């Protein structure tokens, strides 16, 4: 009887502790976050084009990344891995540049035919930089610092990547505010 109580206490203790270990995995992703980025386009993309009409990308200080990317043929790639130090250095340098740091707030407009949207969530020394820039009807081009990040996202090719499980891609897309994610996050769901 006494052994059964000890086993029961150990099992209950393990079950109670397991969710916190599963959520933490030894790191605090929010503190280790470099950026969450997204790009989406409503313009027609032919299947032979190399660019993606929709991307969500989260990258961390240790080089880990998670990415959701829609291919021109409509398939969604859901992967995670570790980027090489040179690529991590490139994206960090772009995000730390004075030009990118100067981007702020929201920029939008009236859409008649199509649009492109760039969203960034970048932790800073004080607070979080949030940028939402829409290019309606190709009349408001992205500023150079945003265009450079978009080009980097479009050219990024994952190597040695693993497929993300359905439960692992809830926090890849940037937040527009507390608890608000872009529609892109919903559109990339399976």
Proportion in helices = 25-40%
Strand content is 25-35%
Going across the biggest sheet, name each strand in turn: 5-7-6-1-2-3-4-8
Find the structural class using helix and strand composition.
alpha+beta
- Broad shape: globular
Count of all domains = 1
pLDDT averaged over residues: 74
Major sheet: 8 strands, mixed
Count of discrete alpha- or pi-helical segments spanning 4 or more residues: 6
* Radius of gyration using CA atoms only: 20 Å
Please report the distance between the alpha carbons of the first and last residues. 49 Å
Please describe the topology of this protein.
Layout: H1 2-24, H2 29-32, E1 33-41, E2 54-60, E3 64-70, E4 76-82, H3 85-96, H4 98-101, E5 105-107, E6 115-123, E7 128-136, H5 144-155, E8 162-163, H6 183-187
Parallel strand pairs: 5-7
Antiparallel strand pairs: 1-2, 1-6, 2-3, 3-4, 4-8, 6-7
Task: Describe, in plain words, how this protein is organized in 3D.
- The protein has 190 residues and is of the alpha+beta class.
- It has one domain.
- It is built from 6 helices and 8 strands.
- A hairpin with a 3-residue loop joins strand 2 (54-60) and strand 3.
- The protein is globular.
- The chain starts with a helix and ends with a helix.
Concise synopsis of the structure shown:
By secondary structure, the chain is α+β, with helices and mostly antiparallel strands.
Task: Supply the key terms.
single chain, 190 residues, alpha+beta, eight-stranded mixed β-sheet, 8 strands, disordered C terminus
């Amino acid at each position: 009887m006494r052994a059964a109580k000890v086993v029961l206490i150990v099992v209950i203790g393990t079950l109670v502790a397991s969710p916190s270990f599963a959520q933490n995995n030894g790191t605090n992703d929010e503190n280790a976050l470099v950026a969450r980025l997204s790009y989406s386009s409503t313009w027609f993309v032919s299947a032979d084009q190399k660019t993606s009409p929709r991307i969500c990308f989260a990258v961390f200080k240790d080089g880990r990344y998670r990415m959701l990317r829609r291919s021109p043929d409509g398939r969604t790639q859901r992967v995670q891995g570790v980027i090489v130090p040179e690529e991590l250095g490139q994206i960090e340098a772009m995000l730390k540049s004075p030009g990118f740091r100067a981007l702020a707030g929201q920029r939008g407009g009236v859409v008649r035919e199509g649009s492109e949207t760039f969203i960034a969530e970048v932790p800073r020394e004080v607070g979080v930089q949030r940028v939402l820039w829409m290019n309606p009807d190709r009349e408001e081009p992205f500023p150079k610092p945003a265009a450079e990040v978009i080009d980097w996202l479009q050219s990024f090719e994952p190597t040695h990547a693993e497929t993300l499980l359905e439960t692992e891609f809830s926090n890849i897309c940037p937040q527009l505010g507390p608890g608000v994610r872009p529609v892109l996050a919903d559109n990339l769901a399976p």
